[in-house]
Structures are given as structure tokens and as C-alpha cells.
Amino acid sequence: MATDAISESGDRSDFWQGVRLSMPVVVASAPFAVLFGALAVDNGFSVLEAFLMSALVYGGASQMVGIQLFGQHVAPWLIVLSIFAVNFRHVLYSAGIGRRIAHWPVISQALGYFILTDPQFAVAEARAQSGQTVGFAWYLGLGLPVYLFWIVESALGALFGKLIPDTHALGIDFLLPIYFLGLVLGFRKRPLWLPVVIASAAASIIAYKTVGSPWHVSIGAVAGVLLAVILPPHHSGVKARP
Amino acid sequence: MSTTFWIIIAGAIATYLTRIGGHLVISRFDTIHPRVEAGLNAVPAAVLTTLVAPELLNAGAAEWAALVVTAVVSLRGGLMAMFLAGAAVLILARQFVG
Asked: Nearest-CA neighbor of A178 among A34, A58, A27?
């Protein structure tokens, strides 16, 4: 009984610790949720469909691309393929985070992967790196507010989107790059950090100019990961195990 | 059911497959080769960098100022501090630079 109570209150404080960390993500993603809702209706979605897409796909960039193509009357299978292409980077997140949450029950894991967004992955990886356990309560505290705000704000954007003032002056289009840069810098103590960043930056810029978006994300990411794989293990700080 | 509805459902399934796929592949192996582990450790920096780098191509003075301030603050402050500092500089600079 006593230990149950302790672990329960530990879960609760873990949850709220996650909620605190979710706040910058809620702030940074809010304009995009509203913008998505507004654009979705503009491109022929109903308010319910905009809400549904946010609730089920839950991936900002891919949703934007999806409605853009929908508005241009592109074939449905091509829209789905584009959503898949934009979200392909999650394969790498999934492979990375699996090591941290393998101790959860399967249902919790299935839910955990559903809310595995860019910031969710980065903040959870940072916690694992600092030597702390990535628990389900903490992970949910981090992800749930972002999810709930995302779907509610999408619906609000769909309902009232035409009322959005000058988005450029408010800096809305550049909030996510700022946030992502902060996340990248947070990993600077990892072995091979600088070579990986340089390789990924160069490859993604070249791919962006040549192959085009969204493939520059996958190509740039693979370049950085391959560099870490190719360099001899004594550079990467991973010890060979028997 | 409308076409839109089915696009959303298929898009959602495709997205979930990307979110669970890497784990399903990796978990089939009993041990992870050190080089694969080194690659996995490089994932955050590698992927997140690609979300920022192409933005630099179109960045003007206001955007650069915001990124530099973000980088400087991130050396000392937490995630929230650096985000708010970067956003404040961006909004302020855009009032003047446009």
C-alpha cells in the first residue's frame, strides 16, 4: 500500500514535470494549428474534417502538404503518399526512442508512438541522455497537452480562420525553426554532434535545392546518421560489447 | 463516406506506420551493433538540423538575429528561455526590418 502510494504520487509529479516541458511546444505549435484549420477550410475541408485530420494524422507539416494538394485536386493516392513522405523521418525517431520505452506495457507503447512528434522525440531523448528513465506518465505529460491544444486550435482555426491578423509581423512562420534550433543545440554534448550537424545541414540544403521538399528532410537525416555509422566506433563513444 | 474522409484515414495509417516502423524493424534484432547504436544516437541532431538548415537560405536580418540570440541563450538557459528570447528578438526585429 505504502509503496503504491509513493509510486502513484511519483507518477503524478512526473506527469506535471512533463506538462511543464510541453509548454514551449504548445506555444510554438499553436499558430500552426490555427493556420492549418484556416487553410483546410480554404481548400475545401469541412470543420469536422479539419478537426479529424489533426486528431488522427497529428503531424503539422504533413497536414499542411495534404490540404495544399487536396486544394489542387491532386489524386487521393498521391496525397496519401506525400503525407507518408513528409512523415518519413519518424521512422528514425521510432527506431531511436524504442530503446527508451521498451519497458512500458504494449498498449502504452502503441499510444506513445502515436504521439511521437519532433519535439516529443527530442525532449524524451534529452531526458534519456541525462540518465533519467523515460516513464509513461512523464511522456504523456509532455505529449498530451500538445495533442489536445493542437486539435482544439485546428477546429478554432477552421471556424474563425479568416480573422487571423498579419502573421508575418507576429513571426509565426519562423517560430518552429527557432524552437528546433534550440533542440539541436541541446544535443551538443553528444559525440560526433558537430560533424553530424554539418553533414545533415549540407545534405539537406543541397537536396532542398535539387530534389526539393519534403525529401530534403529524409536525405539530410540519412546523411548525418550514415556519417555516425561509418566513422570508427571510438569516435562515436559507443563501446563494443561482447 | 466522402473521399476526404478516406484520405484522412489513409494518411493517418501511413503516418502511424512511420511512427512505429523504425521500432518494429530494430526490435527484431537481439543485439544492436555499436555502429547502429552510434547511428541512432545521431538521429536527433541529424533530423532536427534538416528542419532548420534550409530555412537559413531565405533568412533575412530579423531571422538571423533571432537564431543567433537563440544559440547564445541556449548555452546557458533552458529550452523555454531560449525559445522566448529568440521569438522576442524575431518579433521585435520584424517591426523594423519587415
From this structure: A27
